[in-house]
Amino acid sequence: MSGHSKWHNIQGRKNAQDAKRGKIFQKISRELFMAARTGGSDPNNNPSLRLVMDKARAANMPKDNIKRALDKAEGGDTTQYDEVQYEGYGPAGIGVLVEALTDNKNRTSSDVRVAVTRHGGTMASAGAVSYMFDRKGYFVIEREGLDVDEDQMLEAVMEAGADDLQSSDDQFEIFTDPKDFSTVRDSLEEQGFHFSTAELTMVPQNTVALPADKVETFQNMIDALEDNDDVQNVYTSAEWPDEPDED
């Protein structure tokens, strides 16, 4: 139930790119708006909203930003966003999943296609790539300042009912079945743990080695996709080449 996985590297790149562009709050605001408009603005009675609010807090989203998104939903804004998923391939058959919230499917579809094909990728039909990924609840607990070793963390995770614990030098990563997300979150919070990430994500069943000579091109593809305002998440099955250790 322990050991370092490639997911830390995959997810770390995604989060770093989002933060660098300052777009993460804008994307979460759209999710908050949709969740609140669909199920109401009380997270105690709206599990979908509670999930997005967890994500917002883990991303250190200011409370004012959260309030504005909820006020927009309560204020009768009639903007309609559709959830769409696009599938494609990068170099070496690497799977790429793109999740979007858009008010114009034609625009978003065109933009995603351009971002993928311009960087050497190809689009795929529905279901061609998604079957290679599993929906998982995903939590990250930073180890800095945390007086808990791997055995103690494993005990806490097992008590919470999670499926898997992956450990690295700087983080504990916890995976769980989506239906157990709230239970695991509440249990770990009651045990005094705080999350730097708390979300539902897509985890590749198997990773594919990204050729070293394709790293820059593939990264540019991911950057182009994540830079799109309509794109909420980009998942890949890439196993990135190891980066040199920093002294």
TrEMBL record:
Keywords tagged on the record: Cytoplasm, DNA-binding, Transcription, Transcription regulation
Where is this protein found?
A: Cytoplasm
The protein depicted here goes by the name: Probable transcriptional regulatory protein ACFQ47_02975
Every TACO1/YebC-like N-terminal domain range:
5-75
Q: Which GO terms describe its molecular function?
A: DNA binding
Where are the residues of the annotated region Disordered?
1-21
**What does the similarity note say?**
Belongs to the TACO1 family.
Q: Which residues form the TACO1/YebC-like second and third domain?
A: 81-237
Pfam families to which the protein is assigned, alphabetical = TACO1_YebC_N (PF20772), Transcrip_reg (PF01709)
> Sorted alphabetically, which Gene3D superfamilies does this protein's record hold?
1.10.10.200, 3.30.70.980
User: Which NCBIfam families does the record associate with it?
Assistant: PRK00110.1, PRK12378.1, YebC/PmpR family DNA-binding transcriptional regulator
Lineage, top-rank taxon, reads Bacteria
